[in-house]
Design goal:
There is one protein chain. This protein has 536 residues and is an all-alpha fold. The chain is 75% helix and 0% strand.
């Protein structure tokens, strides 16, 4: 431990020796509150497109497959890819500064979405939102893990993650009220010629710049101190960031592979060719060229990055990509996200177009109930997973399995609700859609905390970025698109959303494997890191 530098967290006394913390400080809870607000805004900016979908379809000539692409793939691929180098930067640089810059970027790009005049422009803005938001997960997860002791980490991450559901719900309320009120007041366009959906994008984007100024006042905690293993700041924080950027962005990925030898280059080219062929096959079936080229681009980039990480940081690769416990955990949760993102993306659209409700009503009830349900689910799931974790190292994964299986019946009931004159069809839909969200949200804190337990403190940002690769490239990039594409092909939004339930058997198999492997993997983190070359 001679190469470690011990320092106190902000506001605490410098310890004489590194001792793991047993409770969280008041400042930790204050910082968590601000990070919660950041995540609320994160999902307001991300989710608002769903309540605006009918207006976007009308004004920009889009269909449900396009909405699934804009909500999911256009955002998710760039969110996932830039999350990798930004995750590495979160492991080495000032996380508060990183989060401040990212928040400013995604807020500005959300506001610019209101100026889009077509699918390509809106896609570009959504990609920009994805790049900015890629800073939030790695920076916030790493900060929270250094503010709260291990036995409280799932609860703290669950509270932070509850911002997802508050933000998603509030976005529907804000979007619904603005678009309906604006269009009623100015049917032909209001100030500067803006219509309702344009005003809504700007109304949720601009306040983020003010929140960024508040985030900048947070203090940076010492890495690993809460676990009793404080770690020196990196003398070259941006070196790893540019290495990751070089390793994940084509065509630089080819040069990175070439530097590792002819065999590595041949494998890299072979994977690129296979993904290109797969994309061409899917384009032939669906006609959605932009969707599948983005997916192929994303998957190829991730493969290139993981291959490069193996030679640049063997311990991190070994504990993340080389761990079956880690990979099956994130893939298992990715299937929960696959279903959850699809149903949340099209719940407002279903209520608007199938059940015939107005935007303000849908925003208030679907958004409000969804926010409450998601908050309760993620908090209760986090608390239950911490309780189960005390009894079994893999106990948290039982909550993830519950989050995969329990929402199935409510989703089926909600998305088979038909409009009937004089009936309570909208109430029934809202109740069961919210229940599905409550049950699915219970898995998030449990899955996130499990991944953090499987790596060393210096790897937490990279581990978080990898976790989000699954939630985005499996869940967000494919779930909403599949629902929208099937809907466009069958002319049935119900069929589209219900088709995503086909992912359940795969997800359950992954989680069963993870449940069996996590105990041994968590117990031997340090030993496995040393075996891979970590200097501890």
């Amino acid at each position: 431990m001679a190469d470690r530098e011990f320092a106190a967290a902000p506001g605490s006394e410098t310890p004489g020796a590194p001792v793991a913390a047993t409770r969280a400080t008041p400042y930790a809870w204050y910082a968590l509150g601000i990070l919660f607000l950041v995540y609320v805004l994160n999902f307001i900016d991300r989710q608002i497109i769903t309540i605006l979908a009918p207006d976007l379809k009308r004004d920009l000539g889009l269909d449900d497959a396009d909405i699934g692409f804009l909500y999911g793939t256009a955002f998710a691929v760039f969110y996932a890819l830039f999350g990798v180098p930004l995750g590495r930067l979160a492991d080495a640089w000032h996380r508060v500064r990183l989060l401040t810059v990212g928040l400013s970027v995604w807020s500005a790009m959300t506001a610019l979405s209101g100026l889009a005049t077509g699918k390509l422009q809106l896609s570009a803005a959504r990609m920009g939102v994805g790049v900015g938001e890629a800073t939030a997960g790695p920076a916030a997860y790493s900060l929270i893990s250094d503010l709260f002791p291990k036995h409280m980490r799932a609860t703290a991450l669950a509270i932070y993650s509850a911002g997802l559901y508050f933000g998603g719900g509030i976005s529907l309320m804000i979007g619904g009220f603005i678009v309906q009120g604006w269009n009623r007041t100015w049917p032909g366009g209001g100030p500067f010629g803006l219509v309702g959906w344009q005003a809504a994008f700007m109304a949720v984007g601009i306040p983020g710049l003010l929140l960024a100024a508040w985030v900048a006042t947070l203090k940076e905690p010492v890495r690993g101190l809460v676990d009793g293993v404080p770690t020196k700041p990196s003398p070259t924080p941006f070196k790893g960031f540019f290495e990751e950027l070089y390793a994940i962005i084509p065509p630089f990925t080819l040069l990175a592979a070439m530097s590792r030898g002819g065999r590595a280059l041949a494998i890299n080219l072979a994977v690129a060719a296979l993904l290109a062929l797969g994309a061409l096959a899917m384009i032939r079936v669906t006609g959605a060229a932009l969707q599948w080229w983005c997916i192929a681009f994303g998957y190829y980039a991730v493969f290139s990055w993981a291959s490069s990480l193996r030679s640049r940081d063997a311990p991190a690769f070994h504990l993340i990509w080389g761990s079956r416990a880690f990979i099956t955990t994130i893939l298992g949760y990715g299937t929960v996200a696959f279903m959850s993102y699809a149903s949340s993306a099209f719940a407002p659209v279903y209520a608007l177009e199938v059940l015939g409700e107005d935007p303000a009503t849908v925003g208030f009830w679907v958004g409000g109930m969804g926010a409450l349900a998601g908050f309760l689910g993620v908090i209760l799931g986090g608390r239950m997973s911490d309780w189960l974790r005390q009894r079994s190292e893999a106990g948290r994964l039982l909550v993830v399995m519950f989050g995969l299986l329990a929402p199935i019946v409510p989703i089926v009931i909600a998305f088979t609700t038909k409009p009937e004159p004089g009936s309570a069809d909208f109430i029934r839909f809202t109740a069961f859609a919210s229940l599905a969200g409550l049950l699915a949200s219970s898995a998030l804190g449990a899955a996130a905390a499990t991944t953090q337990d499987l790596v060393l403190p210096r790897m937490r940002g990279t581990a978080t970025a990898t976790f989000f690769l699954s939630t985005t490239l499996v869940g967000l990039a494919l779930g909403p698109y599949m629902a929208g594409q099937v809907s466009a092909m069958t002319h049935s939004l119900s069929t589209g959303v219900l088709s995503t339930l086909a992912i359940v058997p795969f997800g359950l198999a992954m989680l069963v494997i993870a449940y069996r492997r996590v105990p041994a993997a968590a117990a031997n983190v340090v030993e496995r890191a040393r075996a891979a070359g970590e200097a501890i």
